[in-house]
Amino acid sequence: MSRIKANVRSGELNGRLDMIPMLTIQRTMALNALRDADAITDAKEKAAFVLGFRKQLIQMEKALLDMETAALDGKTDEAKKIYNDTIKPMKKEGHARYKG
User: Fold this and answer.
1) 51 within some domain
2) Separation CA 44–CA 68 (nearest Å)
3) Residue 84 DSSP code
């Protein structure tokens, strides 16, 4: 995520194919974070935590792909808007809710 943030700030988004691995990195890190769910002893509470986490992760991945598509199409302003209006707040919310 920090690489994407740096690319958005610098305006170096056009055709940035190096963003592709970010989905893989983000998915791996996020799935590792599910270990926090192991501390939840109530089965229903744990299931709700995992379901909410996975659904938010999917929404984040969609937003990352939308931003990457805009960047590849040379739509830097649109890519920045997706980052600032969708990805950044979603990351903050997800970390507040799911990060141990």
Assistant:
1) yes
2) 36
3) I
Structure tokens at 66: 């939308």
Judge whether 28 and 66 are in contact, CB under 8 Å: no
8 Å CB contact between 68 and 19: yes
Give CA–CA dist 72/5, Å, rounded. Answer: 16
Q: What is the pLDDT of residues 54-73, one digit of tens each?
A: 898 889 889 988 988 888 88
Residue 34 within a domain = yes
Query: What value does the mean pLDDT take over residues 88-97?
Result: 88
56 located within any domain: yes
Residue pLDDT, tens place only, 42-52? 999 989 988 99
Q: How far apart are CA 9 and CA 13, in angstroms?
A: 9
Q: Are 82 and 60 in contact (CB under 8 A)?
A: no
